[in-house]
Amino acid sequence: MDTQDLHALDDAIHSFRIATQRPSYHRWILDGLGFDGGIASVRVLRAVARLTTDDGGPSIGQVAAELGVKHSTASRLIDNTVKGSLLVKSVCGDDKRHTRLSLSAQGDAVLEQATVRRRQVIADATVDWDDHDVTKLAELLHHRVPVRDAGDH
Hints:
7 helices, two-stranded antiparallel sheet, mainly alpha
């Protein structure tokens, strides 16, 4: 692959990440959702929804891994989201020492509204794109290479 192409891809990924970290983006996603949490709470809700299976909700450790944060950070974020009545903690049926997480009705509604808004941003950004290009980008991004943690070599 051409080095120039890799630089262009790196710049595009960086620009997208910066755009989604701006306060104006966060306000647009969160405004009117009816809860006091921030974008981190929405990330927690999305992780719990993605990790929930027919067997039940995820553990705190699974959410930490999904978010790419330490267990203690995930635990703090989850506690705040539980206090905001967006998540429910329940004792794991297999091991009473562990908890499982699930979305409350309010959490599900907040996640749905945030998802609609986030997808509207993507729709606006790709309004002039061919459907094939949007599909191809989604396929390519799903084939992402895992990024190593700072401690990995």
